[in-house]
Amino acid sequence: MNQMEFEKAFSTDEQCLNYLSQLRYENGFTCPKCNHDQYWINNRGLIVCKICKYQQSATAGTIFHKSRIPLTLLFRVLWYIVVQKNGVSASSIQRMLGLKKYSTAWTWLHKFRRLMTLPNREKLSGIVEVDETLIGGKHSGKRGRGAQGKILVIIAIEKQGRKTGRVRLATIQDATKKSINHFIIDNIERGSVVITDGWVGYNDLTRMKYIRQIEDKKIKLDDELILPNVHRVASLLKRWLLGTHQSYVSQDKLDYYLDEFSFRYNRRTSKSRGSIFYTLIKQAIVHESINNTDIVNDSKIEIILDE
Fold it and tell me: What is the pTM of this model?
């Protein structure tokens, strides 16, 4: 699907609603009240059960539930997110759609980011590099893995010869075994080769049935030669946060930005924007509705990144 095809397919709310209906009820409609499958669609686009007359919108219980913003605009936001290589900021969405409130664009971007972690996704496997990076610029005080005023992010990326495969990222409270083990178990298949540095936080890998391979900093003078793929991803992540979001990130929502980064990185070679849009729309249908109050949080911080 290209831009012209998108505009033609979703130029009205009726078209958007019909598309959602087709996807949501592709296996047939079952009335949630009486369990019958006979229905008709009224002039408001609502599905009406022929037996008990129960009415239901295709958006009910989805991420679009009770939205006051036209579906055409929301579809455009999602399409814009997909086609922009480096993502979009809330301010650019606000300008593009002519929204009066920045908070509206910011809230919907965060809703859509919640669609980017697919359920039952396969864990990383094979040969996987793992290391941590600090999000934040220069601060006085403690340095290293526990640096004050910074956010610790752990990165795992598949190594496929000279190329890389999929990536996973998450914030962790600290670089202890407990925090690292939880991330490893959730994201990497047991039996995989896990390449790390010599940090003691990774000492449980063998016990957890992983094959640990240690890169020794003592024999390599340049840190960039240690786990180069992780370093490359960390650099891309920081440039993305700085370039697209100007480093304004809510600390308690950084994991959702990491989910978006991973989603984009893992689909970097895809030539079909339409299939990615389809994936997110399908997720929007099965994802439970989200209240704006569950997203909005005034405790924003500004993360200043090194250039």
Answer: 0.84
